[in-house]
Design a protein that fits this description.
Blueprint: H1 6-17, H2 19-56, E1 64-68, E2 74-78, E3 85-93, E4 99-101, E5 115-127, E6 130-135, E7 142-146, H3 153-162, E8 167-173, E9 178-184, E10 192-199, E11 227-230, E12 235-239, E13 242-246, E14 250-251, E15 258-262, E16 270-276, H4 278-303, E17 305-306, E18 311-312, H5 319-332, E19 351-353, E20 359-361, H6 363-381, E21 383-387, E22 392-396, E23 404-413, E24 417-424, E25 434-436, E26 442-447, E27 450-455, E28 459-461, H7 463-476, H8 478-483, E29 487-491, E30 496-504, E31 509-512, E32 525-526, E33 531-534, E34 537-540, E35 545-547, E36 553-556, E37 567-576, H9 578-590, H10 595-655
Antiparallel strand pairs: 1-16, 2-15, 3-12, 3-16, 4-9, 4-11, 5-6, 5-7, 5-10, 8-9, 12-13, 14-15, 17-18, 19-20, 21-37, 22-36, 23-33, 23-37, 24-30, 25-28, 26-27, 26-31, 29-30, 31-32, 33-34, 35-36
Helix pairs in contact: 1-10, 2-4, 2-9, 2-10, 5-9
Length: 660
């Protein structure tokens, strides 16, 4: 007896019912392919943004090429503002630091003594058979207390190093015992050491016992109980035949914008040159062009249409891609204000687009542009400030600083420092000296609100030595150091002391509060802030620095000034170049609310909707299949029953008596 093949019938019916799912799958595959294509575009946009960001920073342009014919002897580097130059150099002596050593101690735990060690930096000068010490006014002195907690050789070493006094102390065992070495951290003859001790152990500050064993004063009559193993000396060299002496082997104040590093004494002249580094700028630009072309190709390929096959690329017809292409072209064709020069567009420096949107660089035109105005080329790409006056320095800008195009600047008054000039001193002592003794060595000074009591070292001083002593003792004062207050001191030919606060502006103040070497005192003296006219606006700065409403900060370092209208000092400019423009545009495109993210989000929502509909449809198919199976199972049962009835009837009929 045959039954209905329910499974086969239901399976065939469900195949028909599932047909709409295939349409969902096709749509979903298309969406995922477009999402993937947008992912590739997003990656290309990100790569292009990286190239744009590099261009947006002026520091990334290596505009200067500095070369040396013998870097083993003299190496050279230069800033972007260095002028083209060629010169030769001979080195006859390298700078070195002073190295001192004590007598031998039996161990590192041997007691040295009690008291105070005072370290001063300066220069020993020998004249007419007499050696004197002149303090280095740029260095501060340091006093170090040695007590029962640190009076061993190792303890003294650690105390000196912990004081961070500009020297390094070590202990060396040379076979005869343990010696304390003290080495000046800085090279140069003005960084020699004078070490004086107050020996509270035996009460004698200069003998070869107790703490005074560490005293060193090479002046005539001084106690030099340490051995000098290496003298402090300057580097000596010639630049184009001109003799020069410098304290360090790295020199940046001989040629403007150029740093020279002296490595060895030369055996012959070293040739050095500084010139524009065309390739350094060109590399960044070439990287930018490549990244743009890669992005442009990715966009074009994703929207292409093949006429022969009549097939479009996956993003053909996508409005978002078209919008990106239009934005890029508009950005490329814009002009940039605030470059401070003639260059305002990319075409002016040799960058162009062909009819297919491919960007290229005319190298000859680009090199000519750099030769004419390298900073102008940089300003076309980078966020860069320029001033036409060399004494106006662009300091900084912030993320909100807007373009400033050829803004005229006139200086009404320059910033000044608080300055006090004493009456004349009498240098009538031996050799034209002024004596500082117990009666006049103390005075008081206030700098920027910090009050200090100063004690000078007793002795006879020439004008230059006295100026150095005054500056050293004032700037070494711990109260002033904590406050960050410093002064400069000079004594002119008129024998008057001039004390200048190093801080410019109205925030810089000084006063001499108690008698200074018999010249009296002074009331509070303040500096003044720079005052300029920028365009038609009168602005008062802080010290030498002026801040514009745009956030651009610049300093007036000196030069002509005139009140009340101001002396014209040229212009300042600030550009947000192509690097910044593209970076900002791409940042918006790639943001969570940008064009690409918005389009991808839309497609993801569509894919989720399809997934939801697919899930719902699959649930319906389960119900449909159950219904079909129930119906055909019932039909199969009914047919079976009918077939059984038919069989029974047939049997019964066959068994009926036959009628004759």
């Amino acid at each position: 007896m045959a039954s209905i093949d329910v499974n086969s019938i239901v399976s065939q019916l469900m195949e028909v019912e599932r047909q709409p799912l295939k349409k969902f799958d096709v749509r979903n595959i298309g969406i995922q392919a477009r999402i993937s294509a947008y992912g590739s575009i997003k990656s290309a946009l990100s790569s292009f943004q990286g190239a744009a960001q590099k261009l947006s920073n002026a520091d990334n342009f290596n505009v200067i090429n500095a070369t040396s014919s013998a870097t083993d002897f003299v190496s050279i580097s230069a800033t972007k503002n260095a002028a083209d130059s060629k010169f030769s150099m001979e080195v006859t002596q390298l700078a070195q630091n002073q190295k001192l050593a004590s007598t031998a101690f039996t161990s590192t735990t041997a007691e040295v003594g009690l008291g105070t060690i005072k370290l001063d930096f300066g220069k020993y000068i020998t004249a007419a058979g007499t050696t004197s010490f002149t303090s280095n006014p740029e260095k501060v002195s340091k006093s170090i207390t040695i007590d029962a907690n640190n009076n061993t050789l190792a303890g003294v070493r650690d105390a000196i190093n912990n004081a961070k006094a500009g020297v390094t102390a070590s202990i060396i065992n040379d076979g005869s015992g343990y010696k304390l070495t003290i080495v000046s951290n800085d090279t140069g003859e003005s960084n020699a050491l004078k070490i004086t001790t107050t020996d509270t152990g035996d009460g004698v500050d200069s003998d070869a016992a107790g703490l005074s064993r560490l005293a060193y004063n090479a002046s005539t009559g001084g106690a030099a109980n340490l051995t000098q193993n290496q003298a402090a000396q300057n580097a000596r060299f010639k630049v184009d035949g001109i003799d020069i002496s410098k304290a360090a082997n790295v020199v940046s104040d001989v040629i403007d914008g150029v740093t020279l590093t002296l490595n060895k004494v030369t055996t012959s002249a070293v040739n050095l040159s500084v010139g524009k580094n065309t390739s350094g700028i060109a590399k960044n630009v070439q990287d930018f062009i490549k990244a743009y072309n890669d992005l442009s190709k990715a966009l074009t390929d994703s929207t292409a249409y093949n006429k022969d096959t009549k097939q479009g690329a996956i993003l053909n017809g996508e409005g978002t891609v078209r919008s990106i292409q239009v934005s890029l072209r508009n950005a490329i064709n814009q002009t940039i204000a605030g470059t401070g020069g003639d260059f305002k567009s990319l075409t002016q420096i040799g960058i162009k687009l062909d009819q297919n949107g491919v960007m290229s660089l005319d190298t000859a035109k680009f090199n000519a542009a750099i030769e004419k105005d390298a900073q102008g080329v940089i300003s076309l790409f980078a966020s860069n400030g320029r001033a036409s006056d060399s004494l106006i320095r662009i300091d900084s800008f912030d993320k909100n600083t807007q373009t400033v195009a050829d803004l005229g600047v006139s200086v009404v008054s320059n910033a000044t420092q608080a300055s006090y000039t004493t009456t004349a001193l009498s240098f009538s002592g031996p050799g034209g000296t002024f004596n500082i003794g117990a009666s006049n060595k103390n005075f008081g000074i206030t700098v920027n609100g910090a009050v200090a009591s100063i004690t000078l070292t007793e002795g006879d001083y020439t004008p230059s030595q006295l100026a150095a002593e005054l500056q050293t003792r004032i700037n070494s004062n711990s109260v002033l150091q904590t406050a960050g207050a410093k002064v400069g001191v000079v004594i002119g030919a008129d024998n008057k002391i001039v004390i200048n606060n190093t801080k410019f502006g109205s925030e810089g103040m000084l006063s001499v509060t108690s008698d200074l070497l018999g010249t009296g005192t002074s009331g509070p003296i303040t500096g003044s802030d720079v005052q300029v006219k920028v365009g038609n606006d009168l602005k008062t700065g802080v010290g030498q620095q002026v801040t514009l409403d745009s956030g651009l900060k610049f300093s007036v370092l000196g030069g002509a000034a005139s009140s009340p209208d101001g002396a014209s000092r040229g212009t300042i400019s600030f550009s947000r170049g192509f690097g910044f423009q593209f970076d900002s545009m791409l940042e918006k495109m790639l943001s969570n609310k940008g064009e690409v993210a918005t389009r991808i989000d839309g497609m993801n929502r569509e894919a989720k909707n399809i997934a939801k509909r697919t899930e719902e449809f699959n649930r319906r198919l389960v119900d449909i299949e159950q219904r079909y199976r129930k119906q055909y199972t019932a039909l199969d049962l009914a047919v079976t029953q009918m077939q059984s009835t038919s069989t029974w009837l047939t049997t019964q009929l066959a068994n009926l008596p036959k009628v004759a």
